[in-house]
Amino acid sequence: MASGRELERFFKLNEALIAEGLMSEDIADGQRYEDLELPTDWELYAEFRLTAEMNELYLFALDDNNPWYAGQSPFGASLAHPIALVQLGTRPVIKQFPVKVPAGQSSLHAKMDCEFLHPAIVGEHYREQGRLAEKYVRRGRRYLVTEGRFLNGDDVEVLRYRHTRMVGEEA
Amino acid sequence: MTPKASAIRDPSALVVSKEVIFDKMLVFSGYPETNSVHTDRAFARARGLPDAVAQGLQTYAYMCEWLVEYFGADWFQGGRLSTAFLAIVLPGDLLQVKAELTETREVAEGTEVTVNVWCENARADKVAAGVATAIVR
Question: Does the domain made of B5-19+56-136 have the CATH classification 3.10.129.10?
Fold first, then answer.
């Protein structure tokens, strides 16, 4: 059972991360879907150091007790939880491409595709590039695909993802 | 020396079980940010949902836990998971991640293993399902 003190500590960390632009609210207003032009160029949208405390937030939230994330791993230092970079980094890209969702409807995360290319290590600095990659309509539902890739301090690509969300139905 | 396909573990023997706890959804999804169906129960209900819903990425993370347990360190060197989110996940849901082997293929670095992996709730409804691949070295 989570203690109130633990929760308070992670809520404060969330506040700090949101203030840094790493997590932000879903945006349900913006350009008309029909007007979105894509694919966009790859741009740098986030840059941060993944601290042990940020990693711990995900271990706590997910009840994942794998010792590789908090101590030694087969790669030496502690590994970033696989979801840490993804959760911190999807919204900084999504919020670059706000789209109007029809009234009474909401956007839904429909698909996620990640490639874990190289071990991501806690304490390292990461840069995230992203782009709006694709849009399509299927069974009357409108979908938007954003892509991101994370590079570590040595410019090695550690993670690539494709995030698909349904942004409402056709009129 | 690369492992032979016959040495690949049976994935059906491994199950990751999770209880979805609202407090932990809050931590995962950025509370005290509100105006979100993931962190604000009243906001979610006003939008026709039965309660706050867990983020798809939370379910995706549970599937990753299964994959790390199954593939070990190999998962972090080229593992790939492609998932579709099929149903909402609510506070109190009991989830299980399961998988089945679909293909093994010898490649230069080892054996490429592909599994169908899914997350199901206590009613055995799949809430997310996908395909994962990694090279076992």
Answer: yes
Chain B residue set in contact with A, beta carbons under 8 Å: 18, 21, 23-28, 30-33, 35-37, 47, 55-58, 60-62, 64-65, 68-69, 72-73, 75-85
* pLDDT for residue B1: 41
Which CATH number among 3.40.50.1400, 3.30.450.40, 3.10.129.10, 2.60.40.10 corresponds to the domain A4-169? 3.10.129.10
Residue A123 Cα, gap to closest chain B Cα (Å): 17
HEC sequence for B90-109:
CCCCEEEEEEEEEEEEEECC
Closest among A164, A163, A48, A31 to A97, alpha carbons compared? A31
Model pLDDT for residues A139-171, shown as the tens digit of each residue = 999 999 999 999 999 999 999 999 999 999 987
The answer to whether residue A112 scores a pLDDT higher than 50 is yes
